[in-house]
Amino acid sequence: MKGVIVGGVLLGLGGVAFYLWQRGRDAAPQISTGSPVPTTTEPATTTSGFFDNMVSSVTSILEPRGIRNHNPGNLVLTTIAWKGKVPNAQNTDGKFEQFTSPLWGIRAMFMDVRGDIEKDGLNTIRKLITSYAPAFENNTAAYIQSVVNQIGIGPDTKILPSNYPNLLKAIIKHENGKQPYSDALIIEAMNTK
Q1: For 49, 67, 72, 74, which has the most beta carbons within 10 A of its beta carbon?
Q2: Core vs surface per residue 130-169: b (16+ CB within 10 A) or e
Q3: Strand pairing partners for 76?
Q4: First to last CA, the chain
């Protein structure tokens, strides 16, 4: 219930901020009779900047946790010294890793998944997702089916390196409800050492 109330308050604040922001952008310059018509537009006021920032902040709060944390694979907080990781002492989530940019979060997810597949033998979607998203905190069967549908290989078919980009996109989408990253960013993250 508390989440519903907080969500309603945030949506209300977001709506007010958007209304005020839009009103400020749509306002026509006030011209009195007999005054020359201005030839330039006045720069945005600090009030408009404030509302732009408010809208941006509310939008950010409403993003899925993995997107906000730049951790689209929702890797659990550990002592692993991932590149681009927000140090544990500065982590504001408390449960999941946070990264300084999506590139680093996607890279960490790729390294984790590739290790599971190539080193630990979790080389099918069923094996991988059963370990990655255990049933005690996920609907693992639905997760497996979601990834299978997005990649187009069977749940017990061996995952090949050529499947990695689509596998990462499928995990990101299932974890966050959307997959907002470009193919170029995903490939860059996979190739970043």
Answers
A1: 72
A2: bebbeeeebebeebbebbbebbebebeeebeeebbbbbbb
A3: 96
A4: 44
